[in-house]
Recover the amino acids of this structure.
């Protein structure tokens, strides 16, 4: 069920696993690849991610993402994040549904190695379920009395409903809350 | 193609052409003949407004609450220096909302009416009610009464879309109902520019750690002009009513690029930089040129916070535009060894 209160969360998928971060629990979340001397709050394990890759930062209740200009960078809403004038950091103000691909280079490529994330201002109750959707050409999402049918949706396809969320990543589909997927 | 589409096409075309200009001379020769200055547009507009109102200049001045001398100055090209005056002019001209928005944006370079701002909320109400010559008097009366009774709220604002808020406002029938609506939504009015302030603060925190991420310390440390320091002080307190050229100036002082200045303008509920405005076309040229001129993506950790301002000053000095004189006083002068 969606909470009445606005909550800011980050949903992240790496290596087939899905994680949720309740951003409001802290003011700042470092993103990076962990090492002996570096323990970021959001730990990404791909070698294409920098040790100190970026940061989610709250400023007066508004959430931003700050990219640390690592080698492979970040794609934000399908566009590679560039530095500002003279290499300055360009904070990105976040809105519900904004997406990220960390360490994927200049272009957004979605495959099993992609580290994909989405900023959402809602939360849904329950545990994530993972459904094998490999080879499906048609998908039907059912949430309560509503249903949505998609013919070969592009990766990543996200369906947000009041009571649940579905994230279709090709071979796998992630479900949370009152939502189901049927495919053929 | 309708008028709006034609205008948009023209604007995009000019914007692209600015991006192709190699130097200032090319900008002057190729772009300027295609556009009018804000002042030229304003002279024609204010004279039309007064003629169409059928009022004498003295009567028009009375309704606006200014002197006849002030109206004469407007007619000769002096652009009112604040948004409130534009609102008064629009109300004196008995404008509806659409024409008021056009007046504010096109001629004043200010944001359009925004229902989640207290003053604008009252203005939208009186424009919708079509009070005629009484519009401005009603506006002042209602606003004064509400301001007397309103208590500033520190509570988190309800997350209501502007479209829905606008719709609720348009359904209000009476002044009492309006007062109740405003009292119920005090938190929303307190957070009108909240995202804008947060954006500026975040940019400083991320890039100017020497100043502890404080806008005020940065402004003091870099010896910004007193008027810009006042803006900054007001941003810190969440009280600034952003004006277009000050936002542009702030962006240059913070070495923001074109995209970031457009984002600030959007967060202040304004249109992005406009290629059809002569002054802003020069600003666009400066920002685009700075991006291409090796100011982007340097490996160096050190940078001079005044680089962009100095460069902007040098370019702007070459243009005889009405906005330049006051704008340029806020920009630091070029050092011998810079650029």
């Amino acid at each position: 069920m969606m909470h009445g209160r606005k909550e800011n969360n980050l949903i992240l998928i790496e290596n087939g696993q899905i994680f949720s971060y309740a951003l409001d629990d802290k003011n700042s979340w470092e993103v990076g690849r962990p090492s002996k001397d570096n323990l970021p709050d959001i730990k990404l394990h791909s070698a294409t991610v920098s040790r100190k890759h970026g940061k989610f930062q709250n400023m007066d209740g508004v959430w931003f993402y700050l990219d640390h200009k690592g080698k492979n960078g970040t794609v934000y809403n399908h566009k590679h994040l560039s530095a500002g004038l003279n290499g300055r950091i360009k904070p990105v103000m976040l809105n519900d549904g904004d997406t990220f691909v960390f360490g994927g280079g200049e272009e957004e490529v979605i495959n099993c190695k992609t580290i994909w994330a989405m900023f959402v201002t809602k939360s849904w109750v329950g545990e994530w379920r993972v459904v094998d959707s490999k080879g499906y050409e048609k998908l039907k999402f059912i949430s309560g009395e509503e249903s949505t049918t998609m013919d070969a949706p592009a990766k990543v396809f996200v369906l947000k409903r009041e009571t649940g969320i579905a994230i279709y990543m090709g071979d796998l589909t992630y479900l949370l809350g009152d939502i189901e997927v049927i495919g053929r | 193609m309708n008028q709006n589409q034609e205008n948009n096409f023209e604007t995009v075309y000019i914007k692209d052409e600015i991006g192709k200009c190699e130097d200032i001379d090319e900008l002057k020769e190729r772009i300027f003949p295609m556009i009018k200055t804000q002042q030229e547009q304003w002279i024609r507009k204010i004279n039309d407004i007064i003629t169409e109102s059928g009022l004498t200049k003295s009567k028009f001045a009375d309704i606006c609450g200014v002197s006849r001398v002030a109206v004469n100055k407007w007619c000769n090209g002096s652009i009112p220096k604040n948004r409130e005056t534009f609102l008064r002019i629009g109300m004196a001209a008995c404008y509806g909302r659409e024409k008021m928005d056009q007046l504010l944006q096109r001629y004043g370079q200010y944001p359009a009416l925004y229902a989640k701002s207290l003053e604008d909320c009252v203005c939208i109400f009186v424009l919708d009610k079509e009070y005629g010559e009484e519009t401005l008097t009603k506006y002042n009366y209602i606003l004064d009464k509400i301001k007397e009774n309103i208590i500033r709220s520190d509570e988190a604002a309800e997350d209501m879309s502007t479209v829905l808020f606008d719709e609720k406002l348009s359904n209000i029938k009476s002044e009492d109902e309006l007062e109740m609506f405003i009292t119920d939504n005090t938190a929303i009015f307190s957070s009108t520019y909240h995202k804008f302030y947060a954006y500026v603060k975040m940019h400083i925190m991320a890039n100017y750690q020497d100043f502890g991420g404080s806008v005020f310390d940065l402004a003091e440390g870099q010896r910004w002009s007193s008027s810009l320091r006042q803006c900054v002080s007001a941003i810190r307190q969440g009280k600034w009513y952003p004006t277009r050229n000050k936002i542009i100036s702030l962006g240059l002082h913070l070495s923001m690029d074109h995209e970031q200045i457009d984002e600030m303008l959007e967060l202040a509920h304004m249109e992005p930089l406009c290629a059809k405005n002569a002054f802003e076309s020069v600003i666009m040229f400066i920002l685009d040129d700075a991006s291409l001129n090796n100011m982007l993506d340097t490996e160096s950790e050190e940078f001079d916070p005044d680089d962009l301002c100095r460069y902007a000053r040098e370019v702007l000095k070459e243009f005889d535009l009405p906005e330049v004189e006051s704008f340029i006083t806020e920009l630091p002068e070029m050092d011998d060894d810079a650029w």
